[in-house]
């Protein structure tokens, strides 16, 4: 199944198949919510761009939007993965993962935004996805009035990259913009060095986990070249590896032991752990490929993905 999934990703990536992002609910019905962008003043520094402006986005609640989000208790803001070029957080793509969060992780309600992708037809490069991640977080704390002490931000793969970028942004701009820190963060198989997929192919094929993972070079190369356009490929909001920062937000970082992104990801964790005051917990999923919480039901890693979901739930409750 891993080999079959590898071929599917290869075909999607080689053809750069467009991913439409409609703003209508579809099968999500009343789980769907539209999010207006906030005043441009909150998108400062690395989130400012002459060509990419904050935009209207949508998102899906799981299992449904709380009647009173401000008093609903712990909630999760989850940023989906997909190399910045695929995925949408909707039921068809993210439903099984959200079921794991709710059933095995026993988390509170989860909201998954549909941020803009750098692929066709939206073709929105950096910083669009980071802008939309900030919009989603501000939707929680400002629009819905959810106490930051009840919020876990989580993300998988490219979504993990975006969670790291949001944490950095809150550290750098949160005080002056009155953006509070979330209670904790869950970062699943984060993509911490997209730029490496623009380097010679041998950089990727020499990775010790290259042949045990379905995440080949094609998808990541497609994502890196479309997401990184008019900015430095080593931008700290794109490549956190080698650019640690201090944050008081406790983090759980998970990887599959056989996944290609674990090599750089574990190094990033070590860098962050060396910063005084940072609190990181790491969980390595034995012998697992990339992001089984997302696709474990496809490649028959169900027990493994359920175990990761339970670990995530335990971490959130410990920090509640």
Automatic annotation (TrEMBL):
Domain Alpha/beta hydrolase fold-3 span(s) in chain numbering: 76-292
Swiss-Prot/TrEMBL keywords: Hydrolase
A Pfam short name: Abhydrolase_3
GO molecular function list: hydrolase activity
Xref: InterPro entries: AB_hydrolase_3, AB_hydrolase_fold, GDXG_lipolytic_enzyme, Lipase_GDXG_put_SER_AS
Residue positions of the active site: 157
Keyword Hydrolase included in the entry's annotation: yes
UniProt similarity note: Belongs to the 'GDXG' lipolytic enzyme family.
Name used for this protein in its record: Alpha/beta hydrolase fold-3 domain-containing protein
Organism: Xylaria multiplex
Source taxonomy: Eukaryota, Fungi, Dikarya, Ascomycota, Pezizomycotina
